[in-house]
């Protein structure tokens, strides 16, 4: 699914992936024995958490027919149409620190988050 503007440039909502996040995801894909040329990371939004919505991630063998597919640093990211409206313009990053390590979504559409940062509201 892609929208073309009059001048031919791609105008679909973007999901960016940092190099650190792509490297970590590639490592995990490899550990799962998945072909990163076909398989990818599914990024989605689900109901839940104290703020109403939460992010979900999993590896899928291949995209669904109606997914938007992004590719950054060789990592394929699959986003379903319902989730895309909540996370368009987001950046997927990987953070490591003293208290936690993991993937983090920087979402410009968020108007509030819960205290733990696991759920959000748009």
Notable traits:
Hypothetical Protein Aq_1857, Chain: A, 122 residues, 37% strand, 9 strands, 6-stranded mixed sheet, HesB-like_dom_sf, Iron-sulfur cluster assembly protein, 2 helices, 2 iron, 2 sulfur cluster binding, 4 iron, 4 sulfur cluster binding, ATAP_core_dom, 3-stranded mixed sheet, alpha+beta, disordered N terminus
Q: Helical element count?
A: 2
- The second-level CATH architecture is Sandwich
Mean pLDDT value: 81
- Give the radius of gyration: 15 Å
Q: Determine the structural class based on helices, strands and strand pairing.
A: alpha+beta
Protein name: Iron-sulfur cluster assembly protein
Pfam family, one: Fe-S_biosyn
Organism: Halostagnicola kamekurae
Domain Core: 15-118
Description:
It contains 2 helices and 9 strands, in the order E-H-E-E-E-E-H-E-E-E-E. The chain has 122 residues and is α+β, with helices and mostly antiparallel strands. The protein has a single domain (16-121), classed as Hypothetical Protein Aq_1857, Chain: A. The protein has a 6-stranded mixed beta sheet with strand order 4-5-2-3-9-8. Strand 8 (112-113) and strand 9 (119-121) form a beta hairpin. The radius of gyration is 15 Å and the shape is globular. The relative contact order is 0.22.
């Amino acid at each position: 699914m892609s929208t073309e503007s009059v001048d031919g440039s791609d105008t679909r909502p973007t999901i960016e992936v940092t190099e650190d996040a792509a490297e970590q995801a590639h490592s995990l894909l490899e550990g799962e024995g998945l072909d990163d040329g076909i398989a990818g990371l599914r990024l989605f939004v689900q109901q839940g958490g104290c703020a109403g919505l939460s992010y979900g991630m999993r590896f899928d063998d291949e995209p669904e027919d109606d997914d938007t597919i992004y590719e950054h640093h060789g990592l394929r990211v699959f986003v379903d149409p319902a989730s895309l409206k909540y996370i368009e313009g987001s950046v997927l990053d990987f953070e490591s620190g003293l208290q936690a390590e993991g993937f983090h979504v920087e979402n410009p559409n968020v108007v509030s988050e819960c205290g733990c940062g696991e759920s959000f509201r748009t």
